[in-house]
Specification:
The structure holds 2 protein chains of 2 kinds. By secondary structure, chain A is an alpha+beta fold. In chain A, about 35% of the residues lie in helices and about 15% in strands. Chain A has 3 domains: about 290 residues, FAD/NAD(P)-binding domain, CATH 3.50.50; about 130 residues, Flavocytochrome C3, Chain A, domain 1, CATH 3.90.700.10; about 120 residues, Up-down Bundle (Methane Monooxygenase Hydroxylase, Chain G, domain 1). By secondary structure, chain B is of the alpha+beta class. Chain B folds into 2 domains: about 110 residues, Ubiquitin-like (UB roll), CATH 3.10.20.30; about 130 residues, Alpha-helical ferredoxin (Fumarate Reductase Iron-sulfur Protein, Chain B, domain 2, Orthogonal Bundle), CATH 1.10.1060.10. Helices cover about 35% and strands about 15% of the residues of chain B. Chain B is elongated, with a radius of gyration of 20 Å. The N and C termini of chain B lie far apart (about 65 Å). The chains are: A alpha+beta, B alpha+beta. At the A-B interface, helix 2, helix 4, helix 5, helix 10 and helix 11 of A face helix 1, helix 2 and helix 3 of B. Bound molecules: FE2/S2 (inorganic) cluster (FES).
């Protein structure tokens, strides 16, 4: 077990970032254009990083799997983005945002990173407004804020229910501005299938053009992965269909360590599953919990219509168990409790895997018009998908996999343990600990891309000379060859089961044994079942067509095969972490009241796994977590 | 349980950009009314795969109506029969048992078909690279509260910015014009004080690029507005024309 060096700068917490920035090496302005940087992924983190790096003068090559960089899944975030502006004068500050985020992450994030995140949060809002992001405003023209995800201050900026879309379009516009200037070269419909490491340093990538099937190599002085999360390991999730773990997993297999893969976020307010054919789950903004009350019947198996169940026979379980936060408890608690009541047989709807989210009281208090103004688009979306009217009868919701807090390990400079490989946004692990708070993902993606990486990458580049590697290096030829073999192997199977069938099978194991609640027995079973699915996949995959054309089944097969390998690491990590923290609930570790019980003595560290070769057990590296500012305490939302 | 349906699909199949395409008919059985249209296609594709027929290629990603990646002309209408609904958000309960459904890609010179229902919309990106932004660099923004924006303009800008870049407007227009898409971006930025400075230049450059990419002219059919899943209004085109005229006169 090795200890990873996080390179947290010395000095008081509030000065670390400022003093670090003033000390790091700079690349001379005239030399920047001699450096080539690869950015993979064009969500908030990737697009903002690529645009900012290009503005600084670097040569940037950007890759994305969709037909346009504007489609990345950041676009689907609804709620908002946090910042410590304190415009409402309600007592917010950088310190408070920092504190809330560390506590919300259940003391499993790195304090110094979170503090920096809170510091730059205000710059993000400035930047986005200047770009033309149409944030919600008051009648007098000032920016409006709302309270979100249980925060006690109003620090969330929003653009209707489409904040992610507007922020992404802002970052995308900055990116297209640089494409127009000719300093960013954009490669859409390209999927990274390998990371190329030469002498221990990340030197480039191998990609496949998903229209022509052509495999090509790209060399650079630094590689930035902004490739998002791995919630699709559960098959059904709120992630877009193309979200995958391939780039991160390839980096892992080339020596980058993978931190805390067991930290996955299950979002409480999603539309419940309704059939086997279902391809994805839809999230509704958790702002709904500001005015909706969550309940189930008190009696297990009560099949009456909600309107026929009198008040005294309803259990508003969040309000009952957590009187001071009520329906606004953090996501992990809200999700877990929905599962618990459903497991007790009190769940509602056809499958019994749902709870009510009831607006009747709010409508009576505020009038339907106000509710419509606040959440009209969400009620419409609910009706569009379920065919039922949330104003007239309570909505039904159930938790769904949504976000991954775990990811590739990075130091304070956002560089992985492989020199030259940087990881930003959801793809890294650092800022959210074991649970992410609402409206924090957008903040982190843009913080990394606009305001952190552009500084820290310069420090690395200034210490290395440019253009050392060209794509004719043997390492690239070899990597290309391996990629081609991987593809051919899949095409040669010619079995009978479709990719989707295997993916569903994997998802069921992960959801049942490594979902919202985990125990040793289930996890060990998962570790036996997953290899069997992989084995069958390698013998019985039905995959038509060739590698030299647009072949969406092949794209999927490649992604699913990597997800399958990765899923074992996730389960292994969940098994290792014999404590409950944030989204990771180990049944063996709970308080007498059934709440998550952390074990700070044994697990107050980041666990980062290191690949040891095919068939070998990975080894664990640790980064001890020290809490100087926010004192370790058991979270309580009672 | 909702009813299941039996459908006949007439789907455009085309191997690649250069191939000549044709319609093929497929049976879709046991279609649940609660499925989305794309889930229906998934079911058909799984069946085809098992029968040894290459599945139908179609673009999609978020499946919640926001990324703009999906889209096909269904029974002659982009994104199908429901108003203000992307194809991924269209549900099978809006079809009837024994229906025949015709599914074809966006048809426009500027959007070449790359396979089956998937088209190349990169012309949209190229237009935006000519001015679909405010030229602010990272780091030089003033405090966000310095610039006030009237609520009215802010809301109108948001209406225009809601565009998801799916291309239905082009597919729906008899002239394959991209004016609603381009007008939307020009309006979004031009309605905001921070976007006014470059407004005229933006309009001139983007409109020129739009013409160069082979999109058609506008003959006031309003079909674009009718098929837009995000309710963009043709008044955005009027705003674009205003800025364009002002810019051309400079
Ligand atoms: S798949 Fe994203 S809008 Fe339809």
């Amino acid at each position: 077990m090795a200890t990873l060096n996080s390179k947290i700068p010395d000095g008081p917490m509030k000065d670390k970032w400022t003093s670090h920035k003033s000390k790091i090496k700079l690349v001379n302005a005239a030399n920047k254009r001699k450096y080539h940087i690869i950015v993979v992924g064009t969500g908030l983190a990737g697009a903002s990083a690529a645009a900012s790096l290009s503005e600084l003068g670097y040569n940037v090559n950007v890759f994305c799997i969709q037909d346009s960089p504007r489609r990345a899944h950041s676009i689907a975030a609804q709620g908002g983005i946090n910042a410590a502006k304190n415009y409402p004068n309600d007592g917010d500050s950088i310190m408070r945002l920092f504190y809330d985020t560390v506590k919300g992450g259940d003391f499993r994030s790195r304090e110094a990173n979170v503090h920096r995140l809170a510091e730059v949060s205000n710059n993000i809002i400035d930047q986005c407004v200047a770009q033309g992001v149409p944030f919600g405003r008051e009648y007098a023209g000032y920016l409006d804020n709302r309270s979100f995800g249980g925060a006690q201050v109003s620090r969330t900026f929003y653009a209707r229910g489409q904040t992610g879309q507007q922020l992404l379009l802002g970052a995308y516009s900055a990116l297209m501005k640089e494409v127009g200037r000719g300093t960013v070269k954009m490669y859409p419909r390209m999927e990274m299938l390998e990371l190329v490491v030469i002498d221990g340093v990340a030197r480039g990538i191998v990609v496949r053009n998903s229209v022509t099937g052509e495999i090509s190599s790209h060399a650079a002085d630094a590689v930035v992965l902004a490739t998002g999360g791995y919630a699709n390991v559960f098959y059904l999730s709120t992630n877009a269909k193309a979200c995958n773990v391939t780039a991160a997993w390839r980096a892992y297999k080339k020596g980058a360590t993978f931190a805390n893969p067991c930290y996955t976020q299950i979002h409480p307010t999603c539309i419940p599953v309704h059939g086997d054919y279902q391809s994805k789950l839809t999230l509704m903004s958790e702002s709904l919990r500001n005015d909706g009350r969550v309940w189930v019947p008190k009696k297990a198996g009560d099949k009456r219509k909600p309107s026929e169940i009198p008040q005294e026979e309803r259990d508003y379980y969040l309000e009952r168990k957590y009187p001071s936060f009520g329906n606004l408890v953090p996501r992990d608690l809200a999700s877990r409790n929905a599962k618990f009541v459903s497991d007790e047989g009190k769940g509602v709807g056809q499958t019994g895997m749902a709870v009510y989210l009831d607006f009747a009281d709010s409508i009576a208090r505020l009038g339907k018009k106000v509710i419509e103004e606040r959440y009209g688009n969400l009620f419409d979306m609910y009706e569009c998908i379920t065919g039922s009217n949330g104003y007239q009868e309570p909505m039904m919701i159930y938790p769904a996999p949504h976000y991954s807090m775990g990811g590739l390990w990075v130091d304070y400079n956002l560089m992985s343990n492989l020199p030259g490989l940087f990881v930003i946004g959801e793809a890294n692990f650092s800022d959210h600990g074991a649970n992410r708070l609402g409206a924090s993902a957008l903040m982190q993606g843009l913080a990394d891309g606009y305001f952190v990486l552009p500084y820290t990458i310069g420090d690395y580049l200034a210490g290395s000379s440019w253009g050392k590697t060209a794509v004719n290096h043997a390492a690239f030829t070899e990597a290309e060859q391996q990629v081609k073999e991987r593809i051919q192997k899949l095409l040669n199977i010619k079995g009978k089961k479709t990719v989707a069938e295997f993916h569903r099978q994997l998802g069921r194991i992960m959801w049942n044994k490594c979902g919202m609640s985990r125990n040793e027995k289930g996890l060990k079973e998962a570790l036996e079942e997953i290899p069997k699915v992989r084995e069958e996949f390698s013998k019985n995959l039905a995959l038509l067509g060739s590698g030299n054309e647009l072949n969406q089944s092949l794209d999927n097969a490649l992604r699913v095969s990597e997800l399958m390998e990765f899923s074992e690491l996730l389960v292994r990590d969940a098994l290792y972490r014999k404590e409950s923290c944030g989204g990771h609930f180990r049944e063996e570790s709970q308080t007498p009241e059934g709440e998550a019980q952390r074990d700070d003595e044994k697990f107050c560290h980041v666990g980062a796994w290191e690949y040891k070769g095919a068939g070998q057990t990975p080894t664990l590296n640790v980064e001890p977590l020290e809490f100087q500012e926010v004192h370790l305490a058991q979270r309580s939302y009672k | 349980m909702e009813q299941t349906m039996k459908l006949t699909l007439k789907v455009w199949r085309q191997k690649d950009k250069n191939a000549k395409g044709a319609f093929e008919s497929y049976q879709a059985d046991n279609i649940d009314a609660a499925m989305s249209f794309l889930e229906m296609l998934d079911v058909v594709n799984e069946k085809l795969t098992k029968e040894g027929i290459e599945p139908i290629a179609f673009d999609h990603d978020c499946r919640e109506g926001i990324c703009g990646m999906c889209g096909a002309v269904v029974n002659g209408r982009p994104h199908g029969p429901r108003k203000e609904t992307t194809l991924c958000q269209l549900h099978m309960r809006h079809f009837q048992n024994n229906d025949t459904i015709t599914i074809e890609p966006w048809r426009a010179k500027a959007f070449p078909v790359i396979r089956d229902l998937a088209v190349d919309r990169s012309a949209f990106d190229r237009i935006l690279a000519k001015g679909g932004y405010i030229s602010v660099k990272t780091g030089c923004a003033p405090d966000a509260s310095v610039m006030l924006v009237s609520r009215e303009n802010s809301e109108l800008a948001m209406d225009a910015a809601a565009c998801i870049g799916c291309g239905a407007c082009v597919a729906g227009c008899p002239n394959a014009s991209a004016m609603l898409f381009v007008g939307g971006k020009i309006s979004h930025l031009g309605l905001l004080p921070q976007g006014r400075i470059e407004a005229k230049k933006r309009a001139v450059n983007m409109v020129k690029k739009m013409d160069d990419e082979g999109f058609g002219a506008c003959s006031n059919e309003y079909e674009c507005q009718a098929v837009c899943p995000k309710k963009l209004s043709v008044s955005n085109i009027a705003r674009m024309n205003r800025d364009y005229i002002l810019g051309s006169a400079d």
